């Protein structure tokens, strides 16, 4: 099987984020043949401006290049006020004009407990459809991660959670091949 790179994008800028911990865990458990590349530039992205869309500033150009180089994208985001955090929406706005996501397999993991986080997932799905991404159903999952589940290393040790995260990654990698 061909090697594949999956860009992992957390919608959280918070230190100790369960969303970022889930993606770090995905990165740690990625099997041979899958490179899980964690994007860490969310907080440094400038506000999207249509005036700069054709010649994006450095951080936005880097984002677009990393998306273009990836075979698939995996998102994990908190929900703020019933929708996506503004910082993640800003990231997605930078992708509209460049077309790097068009036709690319995507997935998202909702780590919220108690049935929460559905508004963010719905809005993420809507924006990703708009930019022409291809949602992989088995990689669009709810994997509740309780507060404090991440250890001091920033990874989640719970075997059931790790298995669910691994299954989403495997489905996305298969779609990217």
Predict the CATH topology.
Rossmann fold
What count of structural domains?
1
CATH-defined superfamily: Flavodoxin domain
Helix content: 25-40%
Strand content: 15-25%
* Major β-sheet profile: 5 strands, parallel
User: Which stretches of 5+ consecutive residues score pLDDT under 50?
Assistant: none
SSE-based structural type:
alpha/beta
- The CATH C-level name is Alpha Beta
Number of helices: 5
**Over all CA atoms, what is the radius of gyration?**
15 Å
Order of adjacent strands in the largest pleated sheet: 2-1-3-4-5
Please tell me the CATH architecture by its name: 3-Layer(aba) Sandwich
Q: Please, what is the average pLDDT? A: 96
How many individual β-strands?
5
Describe the structure.
By secondary structure, the chain is an alpha/beta fold. It has a single domain (4-176), classed as Flavodoxin domain (Rossmann fold, 3-Layer(aba) Sandwich). The protein has five helices and five strands; from the N terminus they run E-H-E-H-E-H-E-H-E-H. It has helices spanning 18-29, 58-69, 86-96, 118-130, 159-176; strands at 4-10, 34-39, 72-76, 105-110, 134-142. It has a five-stranded parallel sheet, sandwiched between helices. The longest helix has 18 residues, at 159-176. 41% of the residues are buried. The model has no long low-confidence stretch (mean pLDDT 96).
Which tags fit this structure?
177 residues, alpha/beta, Rossmann fold, 5 helices, 19% strand, globular
């Amino acid at each position: 099987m061909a090697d594949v790179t999956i860009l992992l994008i957390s919608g959280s800028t918070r230190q100790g984020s369960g969303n970022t911990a889930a993606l770090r865990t995905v990165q740690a458990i990625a099997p041979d043949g899958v490179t899980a590349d964690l994007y860490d530039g969310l907080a440094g992205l400038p506000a999207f401006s249509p005036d700069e869309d054709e010649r994006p500033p450095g951080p936005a150009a880097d984002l677009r290049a990393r998306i273009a180089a990836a075979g698939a994208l995996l998102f994990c985001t908190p929900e703020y006020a019933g929708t996506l955090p503004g910082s993640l929406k800003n990231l997605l706005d930078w992708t509209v004009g460049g077309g790097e996501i068009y036709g690319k397999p995507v997935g998202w993991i909702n780590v919220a407990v108690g049935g929460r986080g559905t508004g963010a997932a719905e809005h993420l799905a809507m924006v990703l459809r708009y930019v022409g991404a291809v949602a992989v159903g088995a990689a669009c999952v709810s994997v509740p991660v309780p507060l404090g589940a991440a250890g001091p290393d920033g990874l989640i040790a719970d075997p059931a959670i790790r298995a669910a995260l691994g299954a989403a990654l495997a489905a996305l990698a298969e779609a990217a091949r």
